[in-house]
Design a protein that fits this description.
It is built from 14 helices and four strands. It is of the alpha+beta class. Strands 2-3-1-4 form a four-stranded antiparallel β-sheet. α4 (about 60-70) crosses α7, α7 packs antiparallel against α12 and α8 packs across α12.
Length: about 375
């Protein structure tokens, strides 16, 4: 019987495809060079290997496969939800992780499809990967476009503000007859500009993070914390520079102390400006603003160019390791296992039959108490039926 069942059991065939996913959207050699020129952390927003397995198991993916191969007709099932369940039962997705540890990054993904037709099993496996490549490319492109728009808005704003700052400073220098700023002033304003550029870079990262995460996400909160710390240092330097050029001599006993006033302390650094505090303060502010915008430009422009290259080079990052094979030998049924299981079951049935037969014979001969209980139970069940 077991042998007969194994012979009439429908045959199924399994096709397997294996792939790895690489983050290859870095814009090539030029993109790597740009990345090396900026210190700002950068996230491309590309679909990860972990997320690719989620897409493979998604309802959208299942419906695409069902419609493409008319699996409702193949499976003989009319209810859509049951067709999805049958497809899920016939699809095996396995991840190979680094070091074989469950929480390590995925290094490759294998997808196997079983079907009664070996050709269809191969075609479904190939379609899975093709559809995954298309969906991942679409998501990566959308994320790249969102990030590019964020950088583009800030870049265009910076270009306009830099032009205005340069024009205002040039006009003031022509009016006041100032040609070159003092080296100390350049150093101070360069530090302020770098801090302001860091704030702008963090603002861009926060906006990008909020576009894909919740406002309360740990990554967003950490970026906001960093931004607040940088802003505090920036504001302290702004206040110091304002006092430096406003000619503020302080209050209390410090004004007449042996150390001299602030103007006296900084007089060696900026003697012409300290004679005209208002002009010195205005000049410092204009020079500071231009320096800030230059530092922002140095930070934003390379990232903006890299985003444009990322958008042009958008892809899924999927690389096939093993293409889907055309199975030539059945995956199921396992006839040897069926025959062995049938043989063991027949032994169990035979043993039970012999034991029960002996029990009945002994009970009829001796009127055994257990046999009498058996008869009562049999009688009760017979009456119920």
């Amino acid at each position: 019987m077991a042998l007969g069942a194994s012979l009439i059991w429908p045959k199924t065939y399994k096709s397997t495809v294996r792939f790895a996913q690489y983050d290859s959207g870095g814009g090539g050699m030029a993109g790597s060079l740009i990345s090396s020129l900026v210190q700002m952390p950068f996230s491309s927003g590309r679909v990860s290997a972990e997320q690719s397995t989620i897409i493979l198991r998604s309802r959208t993916m299942q419906d695409s496969v069902i419609d493409r191969f008319d699996l409702a007709e193949v499976y003989g099932i009319s209810v859509r939800e049951y067709v999805r369940e049958e497809l899920a039962n016939n699809t095996i997705i396995e991840e190979a992780r680094e070091g074989g540890i469950g929480f390590s990054p995925i290094v490759s993904v294998s997808l196997s499809v079983t079907d009664r037709s070996p050709e269809r099993a191969k075609e479904i496996a190939e379609f899975y990967v093709s559809q995954l490549d298309s969906m991942m490319t679409g998501i990566n492109r959308k994320n790249a476009e969102t990030t590019l728009r964020t950088y583009e808005r800030r870049y265009l704003q910076n270009v306009q503000e830099l032009e205005e700052a340069e024009q205002a400073l040039t006009a003031f220098q022509e009016e006041a007859g100032i040609l070159e700023p003092e080296s100390q002033l350049r150093a101070m304003m360069s530090t302020i500009g770098e801090l302001r550029a860091q704030m702008v870079g963090l603002d861009v990262q926060i906006n990008i993070a909020k576009a894909t995460l919740r406002d309360s996400a740990p990554q967003v909160l950490e970026l906001e914390k960093q931004r607040a710390e940088v802003e505090k240092v920036y504001n302290d330097l702004i206040r110091d520079s304002e006092r430096e050029f406003s000619g503020d001599e302080g209050t209390g006993s410090d004004a007449g102390s042996g150390t001299g006033s602030r103007a006296e302390m900084s007089g060696d650094l900026f003697p012409p400006m300290m004679k005209m505090p208002k002009m010195g303060l205005e000049y410092a502010r204009l020079f500071r603003e231009r320096t800030i915008q230059e530092k922002i430009y140095e930070l934003i422009y390379p990232q903006y160019e890299q985003q444009k290259m990322l958008l042009e080079d958008t892809n899924s990052g999927i690389r096939l390791i093993d293409e889907a094979n055309l199975p030539t030998y059945k995956h199921k049924p396992k006839r040897a296992l069926i025959v062995i299981a049938g043989f063991l079951f027949s032994i169990f049935v035979a043993f039970f039959s012999i034991t029960f037969s002996e029990f009945v014979k002994r009970g009829q001969a001796s009127g055994d108490e257990n046999y009498m209980k058996y008869l009562k139970l049999k009688e009760q069940f017979g009456n119920r039926s």
